[in-house]
Amino acid sequence: MTESENIFIFVPNIIGYARVILALISFYFMSTNHVIAICCYVTSALLDAFDGHAARYFNQSTKFGAILDQLTDRVGTMCLMANLSHFYPDYSFWFLVSMTIDIACHWIYLHTSLLQGKTSHKFIDMSENPIMSVYYNNRTVLFIMCSGNEAFYAALYVLHFTEGPILVGISLFKAICIISAPIALVKTILSLIHGYVACRNLAIIDVKEREQLRKVK
């Protein structure tokens, strides 16, 4: 009989704990020290790529690690946007809408994905779409989308404190905002698509389960 594995000390999960600690430090300093806050926030975000590589390299992919990774991403972005709502009150509505889309669509997509694994229904598969297939299967595209989205909100945060160095007549952080804004917009649209498809697939599960209940009766 082999000794059971302790998934809590798997390498990618340890990286995940480090991400959580860095995020908490960032949250603590977010309104008082933008240098510490953004350094910890960006480091936590960048480690997101390393825990995935570690999971594949050490063959230590776990559902716990996947959930920890998702929660850290969602909560990190949510807390950053909560601060942005305070720093840019005229745009607080849009930050709140963005938070809602990010949390709600990812939650229902993840929850529905888990339910799909327990059923044999015919679901809508976005990976069959050529555009979405690139998003799912091309790690470079996925990295650009995720990092571009984070860069937009992170640059907005830093801009509240400083414009940074001036390059070709424009501040560095303002340039990052302009370049990454379209990526953040596309990422939001993709989240809405994920949420819509997840709702459709959840409805398929409901219909199938109701049919089975009627047969039993």
Description of the molecule:
This protein has helices at 11-29, 34-57, 63-87, 92-116, 130-137, 139-159, 172-216, and strands at residues 166-167, 170-171. It has 217 residues and is mainly alpha-helical. It has 2 domains: 1-77, no CATH class; 88-217, no CATH class. A two-stranded antiparallel ribbon has the order 1-2. The mean pLDDT is 88.
Q: Which regions contain 5 or more consecutive residues with pLDDT less than 50?
A: none
Mass-distribution shape: globular
- Strand elements, count: 2
- Structural classification: mainly alpha
* N-to-C CA distance: 45 Å
Rounded average pLDDT: 88
Alpha plus pi helix count: 7
Order of helices and strands: HHHHHHEEH
Number of domains: 2
Radius of gyration: 20 Å
Strand order of the largest sheet: 1-2
Give the percentage of residues in beta strands. under 5%
Task: Kindly state the percentage of residues in helix.
Answer: over 70%
Please give the largest β-sheet. Answer: 2 strands, antiparallel
